[in-house]
């Protein structure tokens, strides 16, 4: 198993993580950013939150069909996702690692890539920027309901519910 040593490790590629990574790299500090989902480079706001939801609202108000509004939302989020990725990946002292991270010790994190490869990243400083997910209340039958959708699931719809 490969071990990488780096001064700064950021777990999560959301707004705070990308901003910190860019800052550190621009101040001559090496940094690795780990993100478990390449669809989330840049975080919630650009991928499944603020920007795509406002795009749908504006296009709906303009009378655009649902299908066309969704297509445009996908194009927009794909473009912004790529820009966010390159904002970090193109920095000389920054590296993006795709995978799920978990702590091995206070200064070591194991990352499992989507294809199952494991690597250990040892870092002097580790920043946790993992975001959150919707909490579904413990109401009998709610989790099994086909009518229940989180905001993230709604933003992934390709057809009207």
Reconstruct the topology from this structure.
Blueprint: E1 2-11, H1 15-26, E2 31-35, H2 44-47, H3 50-61, H4 66-89, E3 94-98, E4 100-105, E5 108-112, E6 118-128, H5 151-155
Parallel strand pairs: 1-2, 1-6, 2-3
Antiparallel strand pairs: 4-5, 5-6
Helix pairs in contact: 3-4
Descriptive notes:
The chain is of the alpha/beta class. The chain has a single domain, classed as FAD/NAD(P)-binding domain (3-Layer(bba) Sandwich). 35% of the residues lie in helices and 26% in strands. The chain has five helices and six strands, in the order βαβαααββββα. The protein has helices at 15-26, 44-47, 50-61, 66-89, 151-155; strands spanning 2-11, 31-35, 94-98, 100-105, 108-112, 118-128. A six-stranded mixed β-sheet has the order 3-2-1-6-5-4, covered by helices on one side. Helix 3 (50-61) runs antiparallel to helix 4 (66-89). It is globular. The chain starts with a strand and ends in a 6-residue tail after the last helix.
Please provide the count of β strands: 6
Looking at the overall shape, the CATH architecture is: 3-Layer(bba) Sandwich
Largest sheet: 6 strands, mixed
Helix and strand composition category: alpha/beta
Any idea of the CATH class?
Alpha Beta
Secondary-structure element pattern, one letter each = EHEHHHEEEEH
Tally of DSSP helical segments: 5
What is the CATH third-level topology name? FAD/NAD(P)-binding domain
Straight-line N-to-C gap: 45 Å
Domain module tally: 1
Morphology call: globular
* Cα-based radius of gyration, to the nearest Å: 18 Å
**Percent in strands:** 25-35%
Level of helix content?
Answer: 25-40%
């Amino acid at each position: 198993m490969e071990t990488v040593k780096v001064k700064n490790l950021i777990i999560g590629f959301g707004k705070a993580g990308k901003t910190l990574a860019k800052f550190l790299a621009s101040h001559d500090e090496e940094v690795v950013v780990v993100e478990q989902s390449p669809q989330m480079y840049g975080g919630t706001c650009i991928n499944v939150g603020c920007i795509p939801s406002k795009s749908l609202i504006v296009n709906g108000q303009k009378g655009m069909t649902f299908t066309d509004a969704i297509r445009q939302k996908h194009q927009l989020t794909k473009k912004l996702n790529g820009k966010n990725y390159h904002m970090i990946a193109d920095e000389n002292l920054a590296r993006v690692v795709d995978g799920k991270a978990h702590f091995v010790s206070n200064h070591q994190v194991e990352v499992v890539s989507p294809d199952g490869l494991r690597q250990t990243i040892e870092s002097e400083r580790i920043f946790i920027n993992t975001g959150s997910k919707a909490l579904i209340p413990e109401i009998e039958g709610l989790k099994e309901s086909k009518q229940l959708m989180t905001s993230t699931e709604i933003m992934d719809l390709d057809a009207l519910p």
